[in-house]
Protein 1
Amino acid sequence: MPVLKQTTSYRVSLKERILETAMQAFIERGVKAVKMDDIATKLTISKRTLYEIYTDKEQLLFEGIKKYDKSKRLKLQQYAAQGHSVIDIILEAYRMKIKEIRMVNPTFYIDIMKYPRVEQFIRENNERMRHNSVEFMKRGVKEGFLRENVNYEMIPFMFDAIGQYVMNNSLLQRYSVEEMFSNYFLVSLRGLCTAEGIRVVDAAVL
C-alpha cells in the first residue's frame, strides 16, 4: 500500500511538472516551435512516460490554458472581494493582462487558436464573460464611473470583433501585443467612462 501511494504521488507530481515545463516553453517560444521530445528531454523522462500522462501537445496546451484561466479568475475574484469599485477591478484586470503580455511570445497567441479544443474553450469562456459583463457594467454606472447612455450588451461583441480583425490581418507582425492591447482597451474604456471614471483611469495608467 505505501508503495502504491508513493507511485501515485510521484505521477501526480510528474504530471504537474510536465504541465509547468510545457507551458513555460510554449509562452517563451510559441506552441508550434515546441516538440513533445523537447519537453521529455527537459524533464529527463522518456517519451513513452510523457505520452502516458498527456496523449498529445493539444491536451497539454488545453490543460495549461484551463489552469492559467482558473488562476487568473481566482486572483481577480479575490481582488474584487476586497471591496474595490468596478473601475478599480477593470484596471486590475488590465494590469494583469499587461503583465501576461510582457511574458509571452506573440506567436503563442496565434498558435493557440489553431487547436480546436483550446479555441472552443476560449470561445465558450468569452461567451460566459459576455453573459456576466452587463450587470457588472451597470454596477459601474451606479458607482458613477461609467456612462449611462451606452449599450453594454454590445461592447463585448465589439471587443471580440477587434481581436478577430487583429488575427485575420496579421497585425501582430506589425505592432507589439502590448501596444495594440493598450491602445484599443484604454481608448475604449475612456470612451465608456464618465468624467470621474476618466480621471481614475488616467491617474492609474498615465
Note: The two ends are 60 Å apart (CA to CA).
Protein 2
Amino acid sequence: MWLNHKIGLWVKAFNHYLISFQRKFLRNEFLLGMPEYIVVDVTNICNLNCPLCPTGQNRKEYPKGKMEFKTFKKIIDELGVWLYDISIGDWGEPFLNDELCKMVEYAHKANIKVSVSTNLNILNKETAEKIVKSKIDCLYVSIDGVSQNTYEKYRKNGNFDKVIKNINLILEAKEKYKSSAPELIWQFLATKYNETEIDTAKDMAGKLGISFLLGQIRCDTGRELFMSDEEKFNNVAPWLPKDEQYSRYDYKLRLRKRNKPSCDFLWNFTVINWDGSVVPCCAVYREKDVFGNITNRKFKHIWNNQKYRTARRMVKSKIIDNKIQTVCANCLKNGFID
C-alpha cells in the first residue's frame, strides 16, 4: 500500500513537470502529458436564480441533469493517476447530487484533493456528517452579504440565516468526529450592494472560525466568451462596486484589468459536465461547443483530438483557424478570460 502510494506520487510529479514544460516552453498542440487539475460539474441544476448565471436565467443551451456515479468513476479510473486536484461545481448546486460524498471518497482513493463550491442552502445534520466523513478538502460557500437583504440581491431564492446555520452544522460535525476537513471558506463576491459589508463579513467569518475569500463579480458567465471588454463592462455595470479596488474593470477605459493576454487551460486543465461531455474551460456553457464525451470515448483521445489541437495551435499562433470551429476562437477575438 505504501509503495503504491509513493509510485502514484511520482507518476503525478512526472506528469506535472512534463505538462509544465510543454505549457511554458513548447506550447505544442499534441500533448504527451495529461491534465493535472479538472473541474467536474456533477449537476447543472440549481436551487437559486443568480441573475448573471445561465442556470439562474433558465437558459436552454444545455440539457439539465445529474452525473451518475459510474460516469464519475470512469473519470477517476482514466485520469486519477495524473490528477492533483478536482474542483466540483460549475453551473449547478453540487449537493443536489445525492452521490456527491460517494464521489469524493472515490477520488480520495486516487490521492486527489477535492474542493466543492456550494451555496449551502440545502443541508441537514445527516448530510453535514456525510460531508465531514467524506473528508472534502475545501468547501467554498458563496455568501455575498451579512444579512438577508443584501445576500438575496444576487443569490435569488437563497436564505442567509439558513446558510449560517448549515455552516454551524458542519462545524459541529467536524468537532464530533475530530476532523480538520473540510476547510470552510466564505466566498464573498463584491458588488455595489454589499461592498460596505466586506469588513463585517470578514469579522463574521473569523468568529465562525472559517476562512474568508473576497472575489470580483463577473459579467454574464455563460456569455462572457462572446463579448468584448466594453460589452462585458456594460453587462455587469449594474452590479459593479463603487470602489474600483474590488472590481476586475478599469471604469474609465471600460476594460478588464488583465494579468496576461493568453490561456493556459488548454495545456493542463479540463472541464467535464454532468453527462460526460468535455469542454476546454469553465466558461464554456453551450452544448454545441463540447470537444467530446468520455462516456463514448477515452479521455486521452479527446485530449488530443482535432478540436483541442486546433485550439492550442490558435492560442500559440494568435491566428484564428476558420476551417475548424472551436469556441476558443472567441477568446482570441475578445480577450482571454482568467
Note: The radius of gyration is 20 Å.
Protein 3
Amino acid sequence: MAYWLFQGNPEYYRVLDAIKELEQIPWLVTRYAKDIVPGDGVIG
C-alpha cells in the first residue's frame, strides 16, 4: 500500500469544506495516475 499527497489551491477549490461536506472527493491526477490503486492511502 502506498500513500499519496494531494494538493489543492484554495483560490480554485475549497478543500477543507469539501472534506467536511462530501463523502468522496473527485480529484484530477496527471502524474503517477497509473501507480495509484484502490486501497492506497491519501494525505490531503
Note: Residues 15-21 form the longest helix (7 residues).
